[in-house]
Design brief:
Distance between the termini: 22 Å
Number of strands: 8
Radius of gyration: 15 Å
Helix content: 25-40%
Strand content: 25-35%
Shape: globular
Mean pLDDT: 74
Number of helices: 6
Strand order of the largest sheet: 4-5-6-7-8
């Protein structure tokens, strides 16, 4: 899903600059327009410290280790977006020093920029902050905001839809 977001952002706004980190490869990508330059990094901290919006596109079982590693670099001014299934806003808030946290469940059509991303967030967001995250998600499809209490159902429906598409 991280690759879908990177591709969507890159295709939508050629001038957008971002950094991403793949925990499996421990490589950082500096992306500007269509150029991708890979740089080796030993830790997530460098990326977290240098970015205003941090998208946590990691497997749920890896989330605790990633949060432990970057927690000291997440200030109250940074925005954190998690696309890890089952990781709640309250869990993320308990590990980080920011209230600017969004939980997102994208679906697989995002891979071809035709997805639906459902997001939940705390009440502390203002228009400009929320618009930045919506812009990122709109690069891979449509966006819907729902309360946190409905996110587990959204996750289950996304998984069921994915399974149905594999079977057919």
């Amino acid at each position: 899903m991280a690759e879908a977001l990177i591709k969507g952002i890159r295709d939508k706004d050629k001038g957008q600059a971002m950094k991403s980190l793949s925990p499996s490869q421990w490589k950082s990508e500096e992306i500007s327009g269509t150029d991708i330059q890979r740089k080796d990094h030993g830790i997530n901290k460098e990326v977290a410290a240098s970015c205003d919006i941090i998208i946590l596109a990691v497997k749920p079982q890896n989330m605790e280790a990633v949060l432990d590693e970057i927690a000291n670099d997440i200030t109250d001014k940074k925005m954190v977006v998690s696309i890890a299934a089952g990781i709640t806003l309250s869990y993320l808030a308990s590990k980080l020093k920011t209230e600017l946290i969004i939980r997102v469940m994208p679906n697989t059509p995002a891979l071809v920029q035709e997805g639906m991303s459902v997001m939940s967030l705390c009440g502390c967001f203002h228009g400009k902050e929320l618009d930045m995250v919506k812009s990122i998600l709109l690069s891979v499809g449509k966006v819907l905001v729902l309360p946190e209490e409905q996110m587990n159902a959204v996750t289950a429906l996304s998984a069921a839809a994915c399974l149905c598409s594999v079977i057919h």
